[in-house]
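**Tokenised fold:**
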Amino acid sequence: MTREEITNRLAAVLNEVAGVPMDEVTEEKSLVEELDVDSLAMAEVIVVAEERFGIELPEDELTGVHTVSDLVTQVEKRLAS
């Protein structure tokens, strides 16, 4: 799966869970400051992303996730392992 495909699938999850317009989801965007994803919505985004990608995203590895790019990288790492 390409990075672009992961980003597009995460955009769909962010839209579904947090109401973020898919066309606003780009890798450089901050999840909290620019896309207004609060902590409760972020937890739900993680759960849905885990289900959609068939992976587990350990909580301790998500503390440094601030941008869409950070989240894409975490998904990439899990898909590769």
In short: The chain has three helices and no strands. The mean pLDDT is 96. The chain has one domain: 3-80. Residues 3-80 form a domain with the Non-ribosomal Peptide Synthetase Peptidyl Carrier Protein; Chain A fold (CATH 1.10.1200.10).
